[in-house]
Amino acid sequence: ERPDIARSPAEIAAAYEKRIAARGGSAGAKEGEDEGFVAYVIERIRTAYFFGLFDSQTGEEAPWYLNPLITFPAMFAFVGFGTWLVALTGAFKIGVPGELEVPLF
What we know:
single chain; 105 residues; mainly alpha; two-stranded antiparallel ribbon
């Protein structure tokens, strides 16, 4: 058993608030600040927090390439490229060979 791991809902909430404060962001919307839309979007992306997919309870940082802001768009790009490649080559068709074949794309 490790006593430094938050286990109760109150401890988890306190640890979350502590992590958000350490990152320089806030858990909720910022009140009273008049920023432009672009500045708001940049700040929102910079302080984005993905519910612990690559977090460590010890505080150890994951490698840079496991950052969700990099891995998720990379996965979508990979799948999109594969779909484009299949459509380009005509590799996927519906029908029986020798009969009328209908291209899927």
